Each structure stands twice: as C-alpha cells, then as structure tokens.
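Backbone-to-sequence.
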C-alpha cells in the first residue's frame, strides 16, 4: 500500500471546519439510552454516533454486548437524528449484520487487529464496501501489525479507510489505561500522511479527567479527529464507566480544545507546531527512560550495599563511556556531547547509589 491523496476523500466529503468527532457510549445498553444520548449529541460537532454492540471483554463475566437488537436501536437513532452510526466488528457474522442494518462506520477493535486471521475474515466479508472502515491499533505496540490490518482491508478493495490510536497494553501500571507510545502513531503518520488518523483518548486514559489533555496532544500532532466515549449516566455505564463523559462534558471538551485552523495558518506555523509536538513527545520519552535508568541504578546500589562493594567501579564506567561515544558517532552525535551527557547521567546515578548505600 502506498500513500495516496485519495485516502482522505471520505473525510474531506464531510466538509468540516473542525476535527472529525465520533462520540457515543462504550456499549449500547437499552433503546432508551441509545436514543437519549444520540439526541443530546445531535446538534454538536459530532458526525458519527458510536455504540458497541459486541464487546470483547478481557475476562468473561463482564457485559459482552447487547447483540443484534442494538443495531435496530442504532437504525432508529440514525432516522431520528441524522447522525451516522458506527460500531465495532470482529467476525464475519458481525460484518454481515452491520451491513444489513446499514451501519456507516465499522471499526476493527484492538484485540482483533492483533489477529491477522480475524482481520482477513473481516476484509473478505466487507470486500468492496463503500462504508468507512477504521482500524484500531493492536493491543501490542507493533506498527507493522497495525498497518497490516489496514493493508488487508485495502487489498479487499475497501477505499474509505482510517486508523484509530487507542494506546497499548503494558504490564507496568502507569497513569494511562493503555500507554499512548505516540511515536508509533507518528511513524505511521509519516509513512501515510493522508490516511486519516483518529485519537481514542477514552481507551488511552481510562479516566474522564484526562480526556481533554490527551486529545489536545493529538490535535497538536495533526490528528484528524477523535472518538470519545459519551454516556448519559457514565458512572452507571455497563462497561468502561470511569472513562465515559456526559454529552455536556463532551461539548465542553470540544469547546476547550485549541483547534488550529486547517487553512489560513501559514505553512510555516503548521510545520513548526507539528515538529515541536514531535520534540515534546521525544523529550517525554527521554525523561521516562532516564527515570527507568535511575531505578536500575538504585537496584545496583542495593546489591552493592548487600555485598559491601564500592559505588564507583572505574573499569565499568570507562567501558560504558567508550561504547556510548562510538554508538553516538554513528548517530551523528559529537564525542564532546556524549561525554558530557553520560558524565552527567553517571553523576546522578552515583548520587542515587550513595543515598542507598549510606541511607
Ligand atoms: C471500544 O471502543 O469500546 C473498544 C472495545 O475499544 P478497544 O478495541 O480499543 O479496546
Ligand atoms: Mn469502551
């Protein structure tokens, strides 16, 4: 698959003067709930109403979706509000039903994108459709697997494609439910600048208080739109309660977002904003890594303490220094810079170890 300006046609056809917005509950629960939320979102910047009909739950016992009857509710919501309808599909049977009920936007969920057999089954079932099909990133941080999902659909003659960035699973507990790993989406965007890219701050954060900040970060990185879980009674939602916002809260988020005009802005301004946002992401990664490195230094300090060994081991330090200067040169980094940088890292590491050994 190659980048192609026509990848954006479906999005441009909306003729929006703001980012593309998909909103609605994690799951369709009752007819009343679906209609209530859809009506509250009707006169807003929302173009597509989302609701999960089949829910892939990590462990059995959770709400696994209302099933086919929910598609009837979506059809009714579309007739009453004019909003387009979107849902997740994971099997050939889901795809057939979604097409039968004329669902406008289908997305492949994160657990499904991780499974090429399942994605191929979806591609074969949807072959040639003019529906919009969006591919969520796989649960594991693998850009090729994500792109592979898009390629399978593309090869099946599906033209209206896009990707949703919903973050990645980690074993470590972080402030995110799924860590964004922005650099993976940025890499995809650099390869396919015309493939619409949508942020899913709900599943990245797992926390309604962080939705605005993550969406803003994405817009600063030139994302094309967002998918935000929106529920009339979030706390009592049947799935993903902590991350859902009310329709009013969503409207406030849309107001608070700083949206750069697509046209009118000088080319320079656009390029700089994008590059600076890239730098911000990389700086955050640097800090994260340095923090991790210091944690390892702390552990080393602990082992040295237990074995009564001196903090400074000159031979080891010279070895690191030489290796880093050589590696740095390959990346165009001067010896002077690398030496200063690693001296400073080493100093901090020694201070950490001192504290442990003497503290
Ligand atoms: C969802 O959008 O409700 C969902 C299940 O998302 P994901 O596939 O990203 O976990
Ligand atoms: Mn959800």
């Amino acid at each position: 698959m190659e980048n192609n300006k026509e990848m954006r046609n479906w999005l441009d056809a909306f003729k929006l003067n703001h980012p593309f917005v998909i909103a609605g509950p994690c799951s369709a629960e009752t007819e009343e709930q679906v209609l209530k939320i859809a009506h509250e979102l009707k006169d807003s910047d929302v173009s597509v109403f989302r609701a999960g009909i089949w829910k892939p739950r990590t462990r059995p016992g959770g709400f696994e979706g209302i099933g086919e009857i929910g598609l009837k509710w979506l059809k009714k919501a579309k007739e009453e509000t004019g909003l387009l309808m979107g849902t997740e599909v994971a099997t050939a049977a889901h795809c057939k039903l979604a097409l039968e009920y004329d669902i406008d936007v289908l997305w492949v969920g994160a657990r499904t994108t991780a499974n090429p057999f399942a994605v191929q089954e979806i591609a074969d079932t949807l072959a040639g459709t003019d529906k919009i099909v969006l591919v969520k990133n796989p649960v594991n941080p693998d850009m090729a697997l994500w792109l592979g999902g898009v390629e399978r659909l593309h090869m099946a003659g599906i033209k209206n494609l896009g990707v949703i960035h919903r973050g990645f699973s980690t074993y470590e507990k972080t402030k995110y439910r799924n860590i964004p790993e922005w650099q993976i989406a940025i890499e995809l965007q650099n390869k396919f600048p015309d493939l619409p890219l949508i942020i899913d701050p709900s599943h990245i954060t797992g926390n309604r208080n962080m939705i605005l900040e993550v969406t803003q970060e994405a817009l600063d990185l030139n994302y094309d739109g967002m998918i935000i879980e929106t529920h009339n009674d979030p706390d009592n939602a049947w799935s993903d309660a902590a991350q859902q916002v009310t329709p009013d809260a969503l409207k406030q988020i849309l107001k608070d977002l700083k949206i750069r005009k697509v046209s009118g802005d000088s080319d320079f301004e656009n390029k700089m904003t994008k590059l600076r946002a890239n730098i911000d992401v990389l700086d955050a990664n640097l800090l994260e890594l340095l923090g991790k490195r210091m944690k390892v230094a702390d552990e080393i300090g602990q082992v040295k303490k237990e074995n009564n060994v001196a903090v400074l081991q000159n031979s080891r330090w010279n070895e690191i220094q030489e290796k880093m200067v050589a590696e740095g040169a390959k990346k165009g980094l001067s010896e002077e810079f690398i030496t200063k940088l690693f001296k400073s890292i080493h100093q901090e590491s020694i201070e950490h170890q001192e504290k442990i050994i003497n503290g």
